[in-house]
Amino acid sequence: MMELWVIDRSGPYSCEKFDLHKNPDRFIKVIIGYTMMSDKELGLNTYIKEDKHGKYIMFKADGKTKEERLCLEDKPIALQYAIVCRGTTCYRAKRPGTEDWEFVVKLSWRPDKRRAEGELLRLAKERNLDSIANLRQGLQFRKPRWFPSATSGSISQTQSRTKCPGSKMSRSRSAGLGIGGVTLESSSSGQKRKRHGEVAEPHQSKRSRSGSNRRRADITGQVTAEQGGGTERASKYSVEEPKTTSLMPPRDADNESFDNRIFCCLVVSPPGRAIHEFESVLEFLEVCRDVIKGHRSLYQDGKILHRDVSKNNIIITDAEKEEDPSGMLIDLDLAKELDSGPSGARHRTGTMEFMAIEILEGRAHTYRHDLESFFYVFLWVIICYGQKGNMNLPETSRLRRWYTGTYEDIAGNKGWDMGKRGFKNITAEFPPQFEGVKHLAEELHHVLFPIRDEALFTGTYSEPKWINSIYNGMVNAFDSAIVTYRQ
Questions:
Q1: d(C-alpha 46, C-alpha 32), whole Å
Q2: What digits encode the pLDDT tens for the residues 71-84?
Q3: What are phi and psi of 29, to 5 degrees?
Q4: Is 6 exposed, middle or buried (0-12, 13-18, 19+ CB in 10 A)?
């Protein structure tokens, strides 16, 4: 018996079994078909070209008739090793004849039910969010390219899987990965494909994440092509209690088909440094404060919720002016415009180790959950990267329990760690270099996790005065710590 399988960004699918002894002609046709597949049918990226000078993509500037080349570095600076995922891959890029790698090219497959990142960036520009990205029209890609089908849940690797094999993410190689730029979109064939049988749920420690942006990122044109809340006892504090989650309803088990995915290419400029590549404690604190300010602008002015705050989505920017931010929140891949209905996601949104407790419990995403995720990033970077020469969590770190087990297990672990007794154990892991930051950590913890009715409160305040109180409390805490370190 023979069963034919194809695996793409959507997941595995197959035909019915057949007896190759009874159907030898079919067997021969199958073998010939596989051997004669084109690069596109084999799943290779046919958009990236290569010649004797190396890899490149082609684009055409607005108002010009001649195509231009954008040269890519040989190896990507970030990629996902999984097949069934968005397949986000990022390259540094430059114009021919130049020395500086001034661009980052981000390639990914997004579910067609999700709003395009480029659209959200343009929306942010229309609402004057210069602190998030300075968007401009400029480069435009040539005719759309078609790619093989791909889709299903956006499952990706955890924080340790974003480097190239065998590469070290030095300061020069770490980049802001894609909150703007040229956008090329190509949908999959749109064919409804039914799974042959039950496909096992991916490992619980692997969850969605996204790649990135930067303040003066260039959005340089878009081409589109289609080929086919708190508890009852906390109610007196005016708590936002979501009636539903933002997840899409589950698919009909009797007629489960693959979702459609759209290929996207974003080009941003200039790249930045990863948040863990800070050069001093002072720089780290300034970056964190500016990221909070940027999130506030995105949420309150842009009416956009980020929903994937992680250490990979925060970069250090080399500010050219004193008023420029030192750090930026990047990547709107999983972002959602407020009051826009379900996001199209069929699973919890975020990066496992940085997910807020209520998100792990299945609640709808709010601004406070983003801020809670940021707090986890703050703690993670200090404990994981706070000692020179160490790039991993200590073997005994309690933070290792933040990405292993079920959603419920991790929610319980974080709930304990954010309690009064548990949090002291977290700050006890701070390396000597960050001993002076413990007081700041305690202040941020108090702002985000107050005690209400003798219990840890993880809900979301809905009234503007409480929203401003949380943002102001966090920014003011960082300002005080920054003043101390500058003295």
A1: 22
A2: 999 999 888 888 88
A3: -60, -40
A4: middle
Q: Classify strands 222-225 and 183-187 as parallel, antiparallel or unpaired.
A: parallel
CB distance 335 to 303 below 8 Å: no
> How many Cβ atoms from other residues are within 10 Å of residue 14's Cβ?
15
CB 47 within 8 A of CB 106: no
- The predicted model gives 28-46 an average pLDDT of 87
Report the length, in residues, of the chain. 487
Q: Give the pLDDT mean for 378-398.
A: 88
Choice between 316 and 147, residue whose per-residue pLDDT is larger: 316
End-to-end CA distance of the chain: 76
CA–CA distances in Å: residue 158 to residues 86, 335, 351, 354: 14, 19, 7, 10
For residue 187, the one-letter residue type is S
- pLDDT at 128 (0 to 100): 63
Q: Which two tokens stand for residue 142?
A: 């040539």
Backbone angles phi, psi at 90, to 5 degrees: -125, 135
- Sorted by sequence, the CB contacts under 8 Å of residue 96 that are 6+ apart come out as 53, 69, 71
The residue with tokens 């990267």 is 385
Residue in the block written with tokens 């082609």:
58
- Reduced to 3 states (helix: H, G, I; strand: E, B; else coil), residue 235 is helix
What does pTM read for this prediction?
A: 0.70
Label residue 198 left, alpha or beta by phi (over 0 means left) and psi (-120 to 50 means alpha). beta
Spatial CB neighbours of 464, under 8 Å, sequence gap ≥ 6: none
47-56, 169-178, 245-254, 348-357, range with the lowest pLDDT: 169-178
Q: Is 132 left (phi over 0), alpha (psi -120 to 50) or beta?
A: alpha
Could you give phi then psi for residue 140, rounded to 5 degrees? -140, 135
* Alpha-carbon span 14 to 10, nearest angstrom: 12
Distance of CA 363 to the CA centre of its chain: 19
Residue 354 contacts residue 373 (beta carbons within 8 Å)? yes
φ, ψ at 225 (rounded to 5°): -140, 140
Cβ contacts of residue 285 below 8 Å, gap of 6+?
437, 440, 478, 481, 482, 485
**Omega of the bond leading into 24 within 30 degrees of 0 (cis):** no
Q: Is 50 helix (H, G, I), strand (E, B) or coil?
A: strand
For the CA atoms of 30, 47, 110, 277, what is the dihedral angle to 10 degrees? 130
